[in-house]
Amino acid sequence: MSRLSVWGGPSASVFPIGNEKVFSSIWHSRRKAHFTRKTIRSCAADFKVLTSVTSNYNNIVILDTPESRVLLLDSSNNVHSILHKGTKWTGAYWDEFASLPAIVPKGPLAIFGLGGATAAHLMLELWPSLLLVGWEIDEILIAKAREYLGLSDLEKHTQGGGVLEVHIGDVFSSSVTIPGGYAGIIVDLFSDGKVLPQLEEVTTWLEMNKMLMPNGRLMVNCGAATKELSDTSEMMQPDIPKRDDPLKLNATINALCKAFPEQVSWKKLPKSAGENYLALTGPLPDLDIWSAHLPDLLRSSVKEWRSCTPSPS
């Protein structure tokens, strides 16, 4: 065990674990990506490396601290999942995904980019009859999540009948479609700390929309607003006033709004939750009704959704 002072920041990036003193120093430097600055608390904490392995897709590191288990991935090892030991809530964008079941038809709900299943833990706690279908391309990551992040518990039926079905595969292939379609699809697809480039293409969203049942919706983690990359190819995130146009600042939202004119809503999470942009397809829900069907910790945040229109080409 080593002493690690965890800094608040949108992400904590490290090199593959070899020397924990080096690891601690690099963690201190905190590089920015799509992860929130509040999911790991700003405190000094003992940590232990539970596993460190390289797959065909990721550099997988799972850390154990007194309060949480943390999943690091990518060539930059950005934080991708967290499992707190006392609560399923994260204070980050994963919590927002748990609001989706309240505004979609009954039916299976997919998670594209399951990772360590952070969102699934909270969703099955709040919606115990929910059928979740998780898709992840990295089979080794799934094995490690089962071993260290409680994924195997989610694959057992809850008392309400809910369960997470885990599938290994590419979400851009035809194998992910199901008869009748999904009631909703949560899209959380990143590589090397960046949204997958396919998500910035209109055709991707038109194809993904075909996987939904009537009145189904997509909820998307669109990442942060970006500007030019630094010399170190690091994802940067400026402080952006709410009055600025997210369609000009986030290519994923722009593509979504072009794919579904006047049928996309967006929100930007506060600095305390990482400042990610989220998008939701379909008509803007009645926010008061939506809020009334959610637990207290989500009621105020859903009222921040707003409609958007595509920027001129």
TrEMBL record:
Keywords: Methyltransferase, Transferase. One of its GO terms (molecular function) is methyltransferase activity. Coiled coil: none annotated. InterPro entries: Lys/N-term_MeTrsfase_sf, SAM-dependent_MTases_sf. One of its GO terms (biological process) is methylation. Belongs to the methyltransferase superfamily. This is S-adenosylmethionine-dependent methyltransferase.
